[in-house]
Design a protein that fits this description.
2 domains; three-stranded antiparallel β-sheet
Length: 257
């Protein structure tokens, strides 16, 4: 899909779980192809539910949602190029780094030569070539998350859904992976939808930030992020970065009041 075209479109979206718990209510938004969008909001406001809706893992109770012009479940069944990255890397401990990264291609029955080439390319992309034969228990938390990112990218997705992937990491490792994620996005320009509780992380990564209210979640506002690409670690020390982080924080406090 061409950059700038609407890839995800939601109108008056609502989700009510069994027992009458309303997770989302009257959610409307659009995400264009090639954008990187972050979603912030208080715990339990439905951020992760939104990602699962886009992935076709949860069905809306009301409203309309389309991915590339299709129902999300239909889009997934028809081979929509979408990958999911969770907070837990969920690596298979008995597989090496390259074995974990190769798994999605095996499940899709990609030819062996193509698998080998794509795994080698993506491991080089994320800086893990020298660790291809290592097992997960031999890696740091940051490196395990790199493996998780490589596994998501090896399928050459058009959209990457990221559910607080760096939340369990220390701040220095988290910042380094933010910079790495920005580099990967700038190279491939897939569409990114990133859920986080960390406002500075959202500002550093995003072109747009969607701020949610408490449950039942809806969008209180949208904040545009004006910083260009590439973004380097020095950006975090600039006054404009601090001001925008404060603005998003104020919106989040007002939305949660």
């Amino acid at each position: 899909m061409t950059a700038g075209q609407a890839l995800v479109h939601a109108r008056s979206l609502g989700v009510t779980y069994k027992g009458g718990i309303r997770a989302l209510a009257n959610v409307s938004f659009q995400i264009d192809a090639g954008q990187f969008v972050s979603i912030v909001g208080p715990s339990g406001c439905g951020k992760s539910t939104l990602l699962r809706l886009i992935a076709g893992l949860v069905a809306p109770s009301s409203g309309q949602l389309s991915v590339a012009g299709q129902n999300p479940t239909a889009a997934r069944r028809r081979g929509a190029k979408l990958s999911f990255v969770f907070q837990d890397p969920t690596l298979l401990p008995w597989r090496t780094v390259e074995g974990n990264v190769r798994l999605p291609l095996e499940l899709r029955r990609v030819e062996r030569d193509k698998r080998r080439a794509r795994v080698a390319a993506v491991l080089e992309l994320v800086g893990l070539t020298d660790f291809a034969k290592r097992f997960p228990n031999e890696l740091s938390g940051g490196m395990r998350m790199r493996v998780s990112l490589a596994r998501a990218l090896v399928t050459e997705p058009e959209m990457l859904l990221l559910d607080e992937p760096f939340a369990a990491l220390d701040d220095i490792t988290r910042q380094a992976l933010n910079e790495e994620l920005m580099r990967l996005w700038a190279l491939r320009r897939w569409t990114g939808v990133f859920v986080t509780h960390n406002i500075a992380e959202a500002v550093f990564l995003s072109q747009r930030i969607l701020v949610m209210t408490p449950r039942p979640g809806t969008f209180a506002t949208e904040v545009d992020v004006p910083f260009g690409i590439p973004r380097r670690h020095e950006l975090r020390a600039q006054g404009d970065f601090a001001r925008l982080t404060g603005e998003v924080s104020s919106w989040l406090r007002r939305a949660s009041a």
